[in-house]
Amino acid sequence: MINININKDWIPFIVIAALAFVLLGQCSSNSALREDIKVLEVQVENERANYEAAHDSVEIYRNANGYLEAEIKTYVSTAEQLAVQNEKLLKKYRKALNLNKDLEGVNLLLSSEIKLKDSLLISSTINADSTFMFKDSADFGDNNTRVVTLNGLIDSNQITGKLSIYQTISLLAALEKENGVNRMRISTKYPFDDIKIEGIDLINNELNTYKKKSRWNMNFGIGYGIYPVDGSVRATPFVGVVFGYSPKWLQF
Q: pLDDT in tens for each of the 252 residues of the chain?
């Protein structure tokens, strides 16, 4: 029969240890609950952002500095969700930008489509050898230019020539977050007629997921414990390798 002699000096230690286990369990429960709430809040925010993006359209205006500006709300998605919900669009980005299959390291997908419509009045003098030349240039500022050159020849009832067009279009983009919703903005001084823009903010759900640890663990430690010695138990310090089991309610 094992005789357990409990010294009265141990009673405060035993009480403190019991309270510590209870508090650790409460901390673990609160920590897990906070993680669950955090994940839920992120999911709700993402769904709200996608709802607003789906009902948004491109807004075009000229800002106070003379730039034509277009803006639209962007979507929020993981690479896995995008692959399931819009595989065609994902293939388009992968092909155009030569992206890796899992979009590893990719944080944002952006696209813009600019429509330009222009007309020129041609006026030129015909030279003695029946050739003519026309040139028109425009500088809209901030490295936005257009140069059109036409070299031609009139031969009887036929006109031949070479038309050369040189353009530079400077686009500036920004992604802003307001009230939990991202807005993509593109600005230029080139006088476009219409523009389509699209933005997808890629997120990693693993960063927002509470990960449960393994219940079995092994580590090297220094501690103080109770051990059975000569038919009784004694409190004594120890140094060594510890292999133990941590219940779910103790993990936090």
A: 445 555 555 555 556 656 665 565 555 555 556 666 676 666 667 777 778 888 888 999 999 999 999 999 988 888 888 888 888 888 999 999 999 888 888 888 999 898 988 888 888 888 988 999 999 999 999 999 999 999 999 988 898 999 999 999 999 999 888 877 888 999 999 998 898 898 888 876 544 444 445 455 656 555 666 665 665 666 666 655 565 656 554 554
pTM: 0.59
Tell me which residue of 65, 64, 85, 67 sits closest to 75, measured CA to CA: 85
CB-CB contact of 201 with 79 (8 Å): no
Total domain count, the chain: 3
Which residues, 6 or more positions from 161, have their beta carbon under 8 angstroms from its beta carbon?
A: 150, 151, 152, 153
Cα dihedral 112, 73, 143, 96 in deg (nearest 10): -30
Between CA 98 and CA 12 the distance in angstroms is 66
The label of the residue with tokens 């005789």 reads 3
Same domain, 145 and 244: no
Would you say 45 and 181 are in contact if contact means Cβ atoms under 8 Å apart? no
Residue 207 lies in a domain: no
Residue 156 lies in a domain: yes
